Amino acid sequence: MSLLDDIISGATDDSVTTSNLLRKVQIVGHYVEAEKITGWVKGELNGYLLGPLPAYRAKLGTPVMGLWTGPFGTSATQPVSSSGVPTEAADPLFTTNLHQSLAELEDLAGLPSDPGVSWDPQHVAMYNVWIEEGKVPHIEMMGLLSAQRVVTRAALRGVINTVRNTALDFALNLQTTDPAAGTLDGPTVAEPQIAQSIYLVTNHIYGDGATVAHGDNTTQTTHLNKGDIDGFIRAVRALGVGDAIITELQGAAGAEEAERPSKLKAVMDRIRSGALALGTKVSAEVATSQIDQLIQHFLGQNQ
Q1: Locate the AbiTii domain: which residues (predicted)?
Q2: Which of 134, 153, 172 is the last residue of a domain?
Q3: CA separation for the pair 254, 276 (Å, rounded)
């Protein structure tokens, strides 16, 4: 069996640990020279100390349980509502980023009760100010003493399952593209088909981060957000396309938001028909596919 076969069978076998599965992904990623894949594996195995978090680990919505205290020593443990909380303050109070290693997440998922992440005392004090100002719901005659964001074990298991599913997608995509991928002398990301196959996986991992392959032997990583015209044009320009296409795409991207999809589609139709020359060293098929994907990121249609 090849390494890809091992990953595919292991991803569906509960007796194979997720950590061992990822180590095989790391080997394949090394052989195909997919730095973003090997970086992802290292982040999962060692924890994410630097760099962006995968989309499935970032800003997870978490319920909050608070300890409320009142007159004569009364107390109650009740949920804390996000209603009325200023938008800019909601993320640190009601979402959680999971930087821990996969092994730590597995340990947390195996606890007898859901783990919690305590609010900073300054956040508790700020919430009490909002109570005094009448901005947020509260228990009559009580103030908030402490609060915890509850990271449910179900959510943790969901993250772990996402990792396994991503490993499976990675192996299946490569095997479909070229069964020799993942071998010592097999194909690498220098081949557009392999680069495209890996893009489909890394796009799923990092969400709006678009990996753009261009040229014969290089890849470029661009983080493109919805509506980011400058980022969109830079990413397209990095493909080495002609000025005429840049001008057409820039004009379509700068149109009213409701008109952008139809205008960008019209440009893509002209590219596909040959009316607009690509003027790039990348094959027309690959470049067209990459521009189309960048358009999806720009329009926010890649979710």
Answers
A1: 2-197
A2: 153
A3: 19
